[in-house]
Amino acid sequence: MPSVNPATLKRLLIMEALLPFALKRRLSAAQLGDLVHRATSDRRFDVSATSNTFAGLMNEAEASDWAFEFERAGTAPHIFSSSEAGQVEMIFGMPKTEFEKQRPEVRLQLANQHAHEQRRAKN
């Protein structure tokens, strides 16, 4: 039976613990990978020598607490910048705030035009 690489096991256990946090925050795979890489150097994520678990009482909730603490420290803000940060939500080619300012007739016309273009694109 092949032996298990302890570093690989540690990364997998950390990823499993941090995955709920990453999904909740909509982190990309690269952001999660960076977060996991940084967690490997924290002693709270040390793996027990006798079992395939963390040496401490690390679980998903504590891993999320660690990630929030890491975020608050501000040492790696690029990890926590979501894909939505700095982007404006667009509706029918205009910012949502501008769309909401339009009269109902104009909004309906834009929606109809968009639906027509989608139908034409399918054919």
Description of the molecule:
The chain has helices at residues 6-25, 29-39, 60-73, 77-80, 96-101, 104-122; strands at residues 90-91, 94-95. The protein is mostly helical and 123 residues long. It has two domains: 6-80; 90-122. It has a two-stranded antiparallel ribbon. Helix 1 crosses helix 3. The radius of gyration is 22 Å and the shape is elongated. The model has no long low-confidence stretch (mean pLDDT 83).
Topology readout:
Layout: H1 6-25, H2 29-39, H3 60-73, H4 77-80, E1 90-91, E2 94-95, H5 96-101, H6 104-122
Antiparallel strand pairs: 1-2
Entry keywords:
single chain, 123 residues, mainly alpha, 2 domains, two-stranded antiparallel sheet, 6 helices, 2 strands, elongated
The figure for the number of domains is 2
Distance between the termini: 56 Å
Mean pLDDT: 83
Largest sheet: 2 strands, antiparallel
Please provide the count of β strands.
2
Unreliable runs, pLDDT <50, ≥5 residues?
Answer: none
Proportion of residues in β-strands: under 5%
Q: Walk across the major sheet and give the strand order.
A: 1-2
**Rg over alpha carbons:** 22 Å
